[in-house]
Design goal:
141 residues, alpha+beta, four-stranded antiparallel β-sheet, rod-shaped
Length: 141
């Protein structure tokens, strides 16, 4: 009546540890992927913000370029939605001419806490000086 039970405790423990190791490795891989995706989404967001800042700078330059004394400017817009980041937009007129003015707009968003992390976008275009006759949409010039 005295039956001996086989001792399988050690093999079961090894199997459980192997399964836990596999689950841990899969969890770490998923976490790394999620962090990488988060960084990419943040970078894309900052790139779109710099594009919008360039467009705002272009609109600002288009309004002010008729003034002969206006040679450009640099300003730091407040961006409360991007905490820890600082933005700077610069407008520089590269060339002035009778038919148009060549302007370069540069937008930079920089992380204040980590100085090396910055996103920069630049736009160079020509602002055409309007002639004395105004163009009316829908009519042939």
């Amino acid at each position: 009546m005295n039956k001996r039970t086989p001792k399988r405790g050690g093999t079961m423990l090894v199997a459980v540890l192997a399964c836990l190791s596999l689950v841990l490795a899969l969890t770490l891989a998923a976490l790394q992927t999620a962090l990488r995706m988060r960084r990419e989404v943040l970078k894309q967001h900052l790139l779109s913000q710099t594009a919008l800042l360039c467009e705002n700078g272009l609109a600002r330059a288009a309004v002010r370029h008729r003034n002969a004394d206006y040679s450009g400017e640099t300003w730091k817009p407040a961006m409360p939605e991007l905490s820890g980041k600082q933005a700077e937009v610069s407008i520089v007129f590269v060339e002035r001419g009778p038919t148009g003015d060549k302007v370069q707009i540069t937008a930079i968003i920089e992380d204040i806490q980590v100085g090396r992390n910055r996103v920069c976008r630049s736009l160079t275009t020509t602002l055409v000086n309007k002639s004395s006759t105004e163009f009316i949409p829908g009519e042939n010039p």
